[in-house]
Amino acid sequence: MSHPAPPVYKTLEDAIGHTPLVRLQRLLGAAGAARGNVILGKLEGNNPAGSVKDRPAISMIKRAEERGDIRPGDTLIEATSGNTGIALAMAAAIRGYKMVLIMPEDLSIERAQTMKAFGAELILTPRSGGMEYARDLAEQMQKDGKGRVLDQFANADNPRVHFETTGPEIWADTAGRVTHFVSAMGTTGTITGVSRFLKQQNPAVRIVGAQPSEGSRIPGIRKWPEAYLPKIYDPANVDELVYVSQADAEEMARRMAREEGLFAGISAAGACWAALQLAQRLENATIVFIVCDRGDRYLSTGVFPA
């Protein structure tokens, strides 16, 4: 008697991506809706480790394995502002690596605790040094033979995974109707990869990057000094920059939760704010923005009411 083949069970890696695209119902307002505009948020907080960074984390490790650059049991090192570190800690746990994460000390306690929960070692650097100091320390540790830096800022496997997955998902879920894509800019991997794909499908799609205004500190969004500009970034992939203040991003995070039931992080709120600014001057636009993580990662910051 023959038996049917056993089912092929999915792993946690298989749950990365294919995130929902949802329409904002109230924030756009009557005026924006009357002009025929639609704003859609891509819920990257639905990934297993809770952010858009799950995609490049697993991509960078798997591609490095395929090239023979690393093998299970090795120590990986990365400077991170939080989400990439959490995603890499998860990916390292899945695939059997030791993970050392270097993070400025002023970032939220939830992020640090989550990284440790996945088994990562955490090194905190002075707030005054910012991410630049953390990146320099990671490179020095690699030179000292303490592990391998994946380097999300220069690693082509970061934007590559967004070209292969995030961009195609947006194109398919909007049936090719997307006219504008908005993303917060940190490592620039998301905006670079998605831009390449969408413009390949339709060169008329406008790519808009959200950056912090002068003096604003928004987790996950950076305006890098020239010497630290991510090597994966190509200005040709971004058509327009919108500058978001810390106050506007934080207020938008609260409004997203109260008015849309969308509990998201501050960088996601910055992208939402930028999308709403676009909608004020456009007609018949389909605007997609990245909801890069969830709001529960920011409860200790005081942004949300206690």
From TrEMBL:
Pyridoxal 5'-phosphate binds at residues 83, 186-190, 267. One of its GO terms (molecular function) is cysteine synthase activity. It is an enzyme of class 2 (transferase). Residues 13-293 form the Tryptophan synthase beta chain-like PALP domain. SUPFAM superfamilies: Tryptophan synthase beta subunit-like PLP-dependent enzymes. Pathway: Amino-acid biosynthesis; L-cysteine biosynthesis; L-cysteine from L-serine: step 2/2. The keyword rRNA processing does not apply. InterPro entries: Cys_synth, Cys_Synth/Cystath_Beta-Synth, CysM, P-phosphate_BS, TrpB-like_PALP, TrpB-like_PALP_sf. Keywords: Amino-acid biosynthesis, Cysteine biosynthesis, Pyridoxal phosphate, Transferase. It catalyses: O-acetyl-L-serine + hydrogen sulfide = L-cysteine + acetate. The modification N6-(pyridoxal phosphate)lysine is found at residue 53. Its EC number is 2.5.1.47. It comes from the Bacteria. Its cofactor is pyridoxal 5'-phosphate. The keyword ATP-binding does not apply. One of its GO terms (biological process) is cysteine biosynthetic process from serine. Belongs to the cysteine synthase/cystathionine beta-synthase family. This is Cysteine synthase. It comes from Rubrivivax rivuli.
